From TrEMBL:
<protein>
    <submittedName>
        <fullName>Tripartite-type tricarboxylate transporter receptor subunit TctC</fullName>
    </submittedName>
</protein>
<dbReference type="InterPro" id="IPR005064">
    <property type="entry name" value="BUG"/>
</dbReference>
<feature type="signal peptide">
    <location>
        <begin position="1"/>
        <end position="27"/>
    </location>
</feature>
<dbReference type="InterPro" id="IPR042100">
    <property type="entry name" value="Bug_dom1"/>
</dbReference>
<comment type="similarity">
    <text>Belongs to the UPF0065 (bug) family.</text>
</comment>
<keyword id="KW-0732">Signal</keyword>
<dbReference type="Pfam" id="PF03401">
    <property type="entry name" value="TctC"/>
</dbReference>
<keyword id="KW-0675">Receptor</keyword>
Amino acid sequence: MSPFSSAHRVLSGAALGIAASATLAFAAPAAAGPWPDHAIQMVVPFPAGSSPDTLARMIADPLSKKLAQPVIVENKPGAGGNIGTRYASKAKPDGYTILMTINGPMVTAPALYKNLGYTPDTDLAPITLVGTSPNVLVVPNDSPAKSVQEFVALAKAKPGALNYGTVGPGSSSHLGMAMLEHQAGISLQQIPYTGFPQIITSIISGDIQAGFMVPGIAMPQVNAHKARALAITSLEPSKLLPGLPTMTSQGYPGFESISWDAMYAPAGTPADILELLNQAITQILGQPDIERKMAALYFTPAPSTPEQLRELVHKETGRWGAVIQRLHLSLD
């Protein structure tokens, strides 16, 4: 069992306790007057149609009903999510700006950029983890590679000739492939995109030869026989992706790269507002219809306390920081 899997069990267990008491605890913040009294902006640092965008919109509607105010999703894509994350970190900490982001801007970007423009640990306040999903290694449907071993053999036969798509430097789609390059002794060219919908389009057209992708975007095209999935990046098989082998089972032991989405607010947002948001989102993630919708995207709901999310980020930062250092990656 991986450290991430252990952390997921702890988060899920704690979330059950929160959910059980959330209905009683749901109340207006005590520190300031009535909140919210106007619309809340939910920043998504990726384009429309991406998995963070889809999850954000999935949560925004029931959250607006709980808060009795509109929750408006605003996409601010670019730089692997760093632009929108930076924007949210500089917003007024009054509870009217929240952020749905992924692990890249929070975990790996600080190790890759010296001048990021924000410090995750001090400029953003954690609200809750939202969901987790393994990534999927995808190639064009007409690719000669039908397994990871065959893909590696193809890359070795054409050193430097194959390229792959990412949602930006430092993202899990980038570092996952960087790990495979390191472990397999191959060299590929990275092509950054603004989001996974653009990556799968390029894989289908043959403009790029591979990509580590979130399954919510990749699998509809795989199931339509427009692309081919070779492996998943969890250490163990996924119930949501039956029949897909792991990278570990195909000759790369310990290969793990999990995508997760989480909700944040600008640092300094009143604690009672953060608590109310945590309780409301935890309730939403426990709704059967939301669980079904997330499962359709191959995500598992994983609500947490703010502190547990902070601890997860610290653990992931240490783990991926070591990978970045070993691979001598820098984007400055």
